[in-house]
Amino acid sequence: MAAVTIIRLPLGPFQVNTYIVICHQRGQAIIIDPAADPQTIIDTLDAQGAVASRILNTHGHPDHLLANAALRRALDIPVYMHAADSGLFADDPGIRLLEQQTGLTVDTIADRPLNDGQILRLGATPLEVLHTPGHTPGGCCFLVDGQLFTGDTLFVGDAGRTDLEGGSLDQLIHSIETRLLPLPDTTVIWPGHDYGTTPTSTLAREKQENPYITDFILNP
User: Fold this and answer.
1) Helix axes 38-48, 68-75, angle to 10 degrees
2) Topology of domain 4-218, per CATH?
3) What is the enclosing helix (H) or strand (E) of 71?
4) What global pTM score does this model have?
5) How would you classify the pairing of strands 79-82 and 188-191?
6) How far is CA 205 from CA 140, 143, 180, 184, in A?
7) Element (DSSP H or E) covering residue 208
């Protein structure tokens, strides 16, 4: 039996996959990339009888964190994000470009930084942070119980764009190759957007069908 329950909520103007991940043993939950509609997220937690302990952001693009502040206040829980994205654009001219590119206001300040290899607890279940820069400098994936939350690093059949402020295709390919491909083929992929033929995938399937893996890494 799986150690966690995963609830996917496509939210916000860009239909970001917001995830609620709940530990069966203790009913503790984390919220990944709260994109909008904080009351929907709170109602979902209540319906599951779960208590959220933290908010995790896969990266600092505004479409993935529009509900951060409201949930932080309502639930009295901290926001976690990699330091390279938390406040990245606050004193940088690039903030204006990113806001123009996304049409959204950037607010990337987090309470606590995430670090590569860091282990957080989800109730009785460990969650590992994988730093995967490329889509943004501080992009991260989260691995828990064989489930990998990839944000905009890896999609089903695709990968995150690198033409926004702070992006790098070379870095993204390196991150996928060195941080994701060594994981077991059975690892389930939960992406930040539903851009593929299915909402989720496996690493084995992506090795066979994702051109960012087949063409850039396995058969360059």
Assistant:
1) 40
2) Metallo-beta-lactamase; Chain A (3.60.15)
3) helix 68-75
4) 0.95
5) unpaired
6) 21, 18, 13, 12
7) helix 203-209
Tokens 């690493």 -> residue: 203
Q: What residue ranges do the domains of the chain occupy?
A: 4-218
Q: Mind listing the pLDDT tens digit of every residue in the chain (220 residues)?
A: 789 999 999 999 999 999 999 998 889 999 999 999 999 999 999 999 999 999 999 999 989 999 999 999 999 999 999 999 886 656 566 677 777 777 877 666 799 999 999 999 999 999 999 999 999 999 999 999 999 999 999 999 999 999 987 899 999 999 999 999 999 999 999 999 999 999 999 999 999 999 999 999 999 8
Token pair listed for 173: 């390919």
Place of tokens 């860009």: 14
Dihedral sign, CA of 152, 31, 64, 93? negative
Place of tokens 């077991």: 184
Q: Which residues pair with 119 in a beta bridge?
A: 128
